[in-house]
Amino acid sequence: MTSNSNDRIIRLNVGGQHFITTRTTLCAVEGSLLEKMFRSDSNFAQPIEIGGEVFLDRNPIAFGCILDYLRDAGHVMVDIQSNDKNNDDEALFRRLRTDADFFGLQGLVSYCDTKLLVMQYDKLEETYYDYCQNSDLYLSSCSIGNTDGDGRESRDDDNNNDFRDF
């Protein structure tokens, strides 16, 4: 295998969007589906070509992020942008996770899982904050984190009655 065959330009049509990259980029993650598809000595069935482009029936927004991941040698710096104002970040990361899993990119799958957990936590925290702001309950009435004014946690059982206002 010569370096010229490894660096061959590959034209892709992913979900109707055109991408141009190298075989080396597509083969960057050993064992991935892309590596199996595009490795020059692969026994994998040849991908479908239409008009000189390899057709992949996947999400083009997610695939752009996947290409960036492959180009950056697995360093994840995903910046998902969609022109569709109905898409939210969580839905886009779910789509990216699905496609990363499809292509066997475990590092990117793990990153997406972590990112999705952080998003869910942030959403829960925001909901809780909004609830506390719009209710008669105050965080100071909770036993968790209650202090006596000197920075020490209160230990008095009378002060730890969480439901005394009900």
Question: How would you describe this structure to a colleague?
Answer:
By secondary structure, the protein is of the alpha+beta class. The protein has a domain at 3-113: Potassium Channel Kv1.1, Chain A, CATH 3.30.710.10. Helix content is 41%, strand content 11%. The chain contains six helices and four strands. It has helices spanning 3-6, 23-26, 33-38, 60-71, 89-102, 106-133; strands spanning 9-14, 17-22, 49-50, 53-56. It has a four-stranded mixed beta sheet with strand order 2-1-4-3. β1 (9-14) and β2 (17-22) form a beta hairpin. α4 packs across α5 (89-102) and α5 packs antiparallel against α6 (106-133). The protein is elongated, with a radius of gyration of 25 Å. Mean pLDDT is 77; it is low at 161-166.
Helix content: 40-55%
Order of adjacent strands in the largest pleated sheet:
2-1-4-3
Distance between the termini: 76 Å
The top-level CATH class of the domain at 3-113 is Alpha Beta
Biggest β-sheet, characterized? Answer: 4 strands, mixed
Oligomer: single chain
Q: What is the beta-strand fraction?
A: 5-15%
Q: Helical element count?
A: 6
Spans with pLDDT under 50 lasting ≥5 residues?
161-166
In CATH terms, what is the fold-level topology of the domain at 3-113?
Answer: Potassium Channel Kv1.1, Chain A
Please identify which CATH superfamily of the domain at 3-113 we are dealing with: Potassium Channel Kv1.1, Chain A
Which structural category do the helix and sheet elements fall into?
alpha+beta
Q: Judging by the overall fold, what is the CATH architecture of the domain at 3-113?
A: 2-Layer Sandwich
Total number of strands: 4
Computed over alpha carbons, the radius of gyration is 25 Å
| Basic shape | elongated
Mean pLDDT across every amino acid position: 77
Order of helices and strands: HEEHHEEHHH
